[in-house]
Specification:
The chain is mainly beta. Helices cover 6% and strands 34% of the residues. A 3-stranded mixed sheet has the order 1-3-2, with no helix packed on it.
Length: 77
């Protein structure tokens, strides 16, 4: 999931989030919990099983836009 901001992530507010569907997760290596730029195909998929705003699939690149330093560990949702 890509969240709008840290608040939405911390409180698991998926209504503002976008799902990221990748076949090979290595494209995300070193980019977890960072502010990123993503180039991918966007599909609006919203239903009771997928309450988020849409899905980004088959990303051609994911790059860190701004590094986020964390002092405390983060729980994975």
């Amino acid at each position: 999931m890509l969240y709008r901001d840290e608040h939405d992530y911390s409180y698991d507010i998926v209504m503002n989030a976008v799902a990221l569907d990748v076949e090979d997760a290595s494209i995300l290596e070193g980019k977890w919990y960072q502010m990123v730029r993503v180039q991918a195909r966007f599909d609006l998929e919203k239903n009771e099983n997928h309450p988020w705003f849409g899905v980004l699939s088959s990303p051609s690149y994911v790059e860190v836009a701004r590094k986020v330093d964390r002092l405390e560990p983060v729980a994975v949702h």
